[in-house]
Amino acid sequence: MSGLALTFTLIFVFITVLVSMRQKLGLEKDIMIGTIRAAVQLLLVGYVLQFVFRTENLFLIIFIIVMMIAVAAWNAGQRGSGLRGIRWRIALSIGATEALIMLLLLGLGIIEPASQYIIPISGMSIGNAMVVAGLFLNGMKQDVLASKGEIEALLALGANARQAIQQCLKRAVKASMIPTIDGMKTVGIVQLPGMMTGMIIAGADPLEAVRYQILIVFAFTSSAAVTSIILGLLSYRLWFTKELQLRLQDSR
Amino acid sequence: MSILKFDHLSKRLQGSSENQPLFSNVSAVIDEPERIALLAPSGQGKSTLLRILSLLDCADEGDILLNNVSFREWQPLHWRMKAMYVAQQAVMLPGSVEDNLRIASRLHRTVFDNDYARKLMADVGLHELDWCKPSADLSGGEKQRVALVRSLLLYPDLLLLDEITASLDPHSKVAVEVMLAELHEKQGTTYIWVTHDLEQARSVSNRVWFMGEGTLLEDAPTGEFFRSPQSEAARRFLSLADREEGEKCQA
Ligand SMILES: Nc1ncnc2c1ncn2[C@@H]1O[C@H](COP(=O)(O)OP(=O)(O)OP(=O)(O)O)[C@@H](O)[C@H]1O
Ligand SMILES: [Mg+2]
């Protein structure tokens, strides 16, 4: 795509601003900020990727992946505000998931050990893990509040933290996985995945694009499961005080 | 050696203005197995005190000792198995009646004493209850009794009973009273029983704690408390209750 063509895409921004102004939505400022940020971020990423693909430096690849995990953890951690130390726990669970997926993909020779494959696939799987972690924390928050009576009944009977919160954990893990599993059922029919679409537009053979998409979809399901289970194990104690009393989040 | 001792407990409510604590300076000692009735007008913090005594809630100040050891040195879950709180609102755990009865042995990996469970269920008047019934389908009074039996299966030394007969018919109420008296007699179980039923308080206790004016205002043998309450608040509490009783009889 030429630079001129790219500039023309600003027409879409223009339309949005117009709608916002006519309908008095008051979104003009946000649209402008969003437009600039999207353009700058994406262009920057393009240059970074170009540089990484050319140099193929292992440390650079690792650095980028660590950055992605950090940003994802920080983002998902906003769902768990009030839980102290939740962010590094999210980072750890997403990191473990990423490590597992890369180990399998590279170890079994499913993808070639080149940054061209490693980085986009990592990005997508970390992004998915971030969404799953956010869903898990949200689910826990609501479930713990709703099951307060049950949890306290168990505590009164001398249950430990794990036993008292087991049912909530189970339900939250399940709830966090459902969107990924549902997505797997409808993929290709209801929505064409962005990655596949992108590959096809860039000129790849649709069948080749579909193969990578299948890889991504399968990897996502296991990454969803692994992320929320690890996060559950790392974080369940945070719902209790050190005196083993339920800590409720609603006040903060 | 004392069974339970607490010293200068105070509790401020979360979110309320700081100046007025719910209660403060609450102290008492239980030296030998006793039957205590905890009385107070609604909202004085009876449930809160019981929850603090079972470490389900924390006091802002003060110390609690169980068997002469401060709560700071206990594992909360070991403490709770000895000082068992039976809640005002009985919460059934998912599953059947039997699942609920077995919960304690499942949590602590002990053998489930079927005979003892059957005996306790019969004692509280639930010998005919089907153990396979989903616990969610039980009536309020049945839930309260199942919750009580579920707790008793842990053989607690100290029972913190929060209005556990509030939704029972007179007959089952007496059954529960008799059973708890027997537990006290035979196993030396101590209980602290919150109740709004003065007739019940009189018959199930040998000692009364009365909470008022933001503290534990009176601590006296049952007979003495009902005959000659020391504080103005207690006198008012008893006379008000008497009047209500009279009105009920007239109606
Ligand atoms: N978690 C809580 N957060 C804020 N306030 C609370 C909380 N629990 C109890 N309270 C308040 O503390 C006060 C005492 O409550 P508590 O349940 O201990 O009273 P009670 O003496 O048991 O009353 P009742 O006889 O009606 O059961 C009440 O005013 C109640 O609103
Ligand atoms: Mg109460």
UniProtKB/TrEMBL annotation, chain A:
Its main location: membrane. The chain crosses the membrane at residues 6-22, 34-52, 58-76, 88-111, 117-137, 186-204, 210-234. It is a multi-pass membrane protein. InterPro entries: UPF0014_fam. Keywords: Membrane, Transmembrane, Transmembrane helix. It is found in: Membrane. Belongs to the UPF0014 family. This is Iron export ABC transporter permease subunit FetB. The lineage of its organism: Bacteria, Bacillati, Bacillota, Bacilli, Bacillales. The gene is fetB.
Automatic annotation (TrEMBL), chain B:
GO terms for molecular function: ATP binding. Keywords: ATP-binding, Nucleotide-binding, Transport. The keyword Zinc does not apply. It comes from the Bacteria. Transmembrane segments: none annotated. Residues 4-238 form the ABC transporter domain. The keyword tRNA processing does not apply. PANTHER family: ABC TRANSPORTER I FAMILY MEMBER 17. This is ATP-binding cassette domain-containing protein. It comes from Paenibacillus oenotherae.
